[in-house]
Amino acid sequence: MLRSRPHSAPCTDFDGVRILEVDSDDDFGGGTIMVAKKRLLLGITALVLIGALLGFLLHSRSTGPARLKLAVVTWVGFGPFYVAQDKGFFREQGIDVELLRIDDFGARRAALASGKLDGSVETIDSLAIGLAQGIPAVEVLLVDESYGGDGIVATRDIKSLADLSGKTVALAKTTPSHFFLLYLMDQASLNPATITIKPMDAGDAGAAFVAGKVDAAVTWEPWLGKAKDTPRGHILTTSREHPGIIADCFVVHPDLARNRPEAVKALLRAWFKAIDFLKSDGPEAIAIISKRLELPAADLEGMLQGVRFPSYEDNMRFMGVGGGDNRMEQMFSAALRLWQKEGVIAADKKIAPASVYNPAFLRDMNK
Length: 367
Fold this sequence. Notes:
The longest helix has 34 residues, at 30-63. The termini are far apart. Helices cover 44% and strands 19% of the residues. The relative contact order is 0.14. The radius of gyration is 31 Å and the shape is globular. By secondary structure, it is of the alpha/beta class. It has a 5-stranded mixed β-sheet with strand order 9-8-10-7-11, with helices on both faces. Strands 5-12-6-13 form a 4-stranded antiparallel β-sheet. It has a two-stranded antiparallel ribbon with strand order 1-2. It folds into 3 domains: 11-50, no CATH class; 67-146 and 246-363, Periplasmic binding protein-like II (D-Maltodextrin-Binding Protein, domain 2), CATH 3.40.190; 150-238, Periplasmic binding protein-like II (D-Maltodextrin-Binding Protein, domain 2).
């Protein structure tokens, strides 16, 4: 007997999937079709469950405890970050922080630009240079201000900034030391072109002055004190007389600011708790910083004398919140202008000061 060709089977839509239906008396076999249907339904169910799981994982990644990689440098002003980490203040705020000590400017900025860092430290003047180079950063915190820790030493015949004209000054170029001198001379309407700059690291600059190799130097402790103790030298001025020029700030990658604002606010809360701990439990805080920065505790105590940690209220005023003077915009504008005059930043480069910081994280820190 000849076998007849099976007729075309009707199709049924199941959630957008075409399922072939055949009669149970066809050659396909009813049992086989039922198994096929069940397998297909199980496959669809599995896909739905996998999609839901992936959605949950993505959601938990965006709302769960944030893992942050932050860069600091070997400086006592950034010590409270280590206090916050070792005392568990970051964890208390629901963030998992990894602190990386990266002293090299270029390496630190490259890591931030590539997204390998969520945040980093800068001075206001160096932030202007970094942003001009295209580094993605938003300032969210004034960390510390030099308050006597930096200064200018000079021979005793140099009694004012104007007396530096025609003299040789040792300093580290395009650094806060350089900016400190440029800013002071600009405020006094003096031309920096009248001095001869001998470029070297700030520590080497102090040593060169003590050795009698230069007429003046922009440096920091302990060289300020050593220069004062020499027969030929004295301290011309320091950041104690001119606070706020050398100011460290903390910046975050714009992606973190945009996508994880709660993590930024948690970071700020932990920072201010560490500052309070430094004030109330100084010896323990210094011991933590000494261990983490690998610097003798006695040296740190001396360095802390030349640093001022702004309070929450100081930070708000600094960023112009609630009628503050907004020194953030003032100092950034000054840095941009002075670095352009020096040829460090292109003269036609435009950066709106209001675009480089975001006070909302501080303002809403406890909300």
